[in-house]
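Risk register update: the risk of archive-format incompatibility is retired. Evidence:
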Amino acid sequence: MCKQQVRADVWMQAFLALAVTVVVGLSFVVRANRIAWSQNAQRQEVDVLEGLDPVMLVQGKEAQGDLKIFVTRGQFRYLFSTAENKALFEKDPSRYEIQLNGQCARMGPAARGNPDLFTVHKGRIYIFGTAECKKAFEAAPGNYLESENPPARIITPTPEALKKGSELIEKAVQALGGASRIDGITSYQERSVSLRKTEQGELQGKMVMTIVFPDRFRRDETRQDTFSVVLTPSDGFFQIRQRAGSLGEEERADQVRQFRRLPLSILRARKQPTFKAAALGKAAALGRKAGDAAVEQVAVEFDGISLTLNLDPASGRMVSLSYRGRGTDGVLGEIEHMFSDFRTTDGITLPYRTNITLKGELMRSVAVESITLNAPVPPASFERPKSDGAR
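Archived output:
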């Protein structure tokens, strides 16, 4: 297949995906485009940046590259107007290549960028999944770049804080149902309805989340169509209908983090070698009623995940958790999950309602319809569709 045909197939499939899902929200559309890219562009290197010389772009100029002077980095092939510029690129590729491993600079690891939809910011080249993403980024780059939006605090725990943190985690375990019940769970399935705020307005969708512990995850989100993400120890892919696209390494890691931020997943991970919990003291928490005691805060780290748990001081129940992340519009900030409507299923007490905020503003609400524990899950749930042509 020639280069031109590969590119035509990529953008035609991206257009079809967009036409089907345009009413369901920006992040959904960007991910749909990611499937088209992964199925086609990976078959052959693709000339990027509309064939423009990246060294000249970084310098604020445009010069058409020569097809005979190029460097390939992963799936991207960069063209250069002169051999001297090629040499400059090879000497310091991280300065001149597309940044963020080809992610959409607005949406982050959840979305792949179009290598011909780019901008230059502070001498670095960034690409985007949609024209809307490019426009939003150019208006306020600091909202989307980790390098320009550092964490609010860095915690160095003391031995006393670690000891108290461990005690608080065990109290949370008891509040959830006890160690034997939590550790004995083999599978978890949750059916819910979510209301999400997007640039197009409020969108309602249904979701089915399935976990087979310790390392198989599946999430199916249905609006006008069903969009799925599936993770196993050896694979990770997106799926729309019977078409699937592979997740990149960073995209896969981002999806794994989403599943492991669930209260049940966090407390089940407490025995892992990487798990560390440090008490931060008492503080007020969003969503608490006037007169309620301040929550006990615990900083938790495991498997590259960092978050803060807010525990009810009397019962140990996890009333909320927070972490640094991206909202549905890609903006970086403190995300908080506030839990309520606790119910008990098979001896496990879990929240049936979650309000998710970014920088204090409601972003999404989730109402759980049912939770099923330890039910058999067909292995086929974690397999790629048979008709999928992805490599």
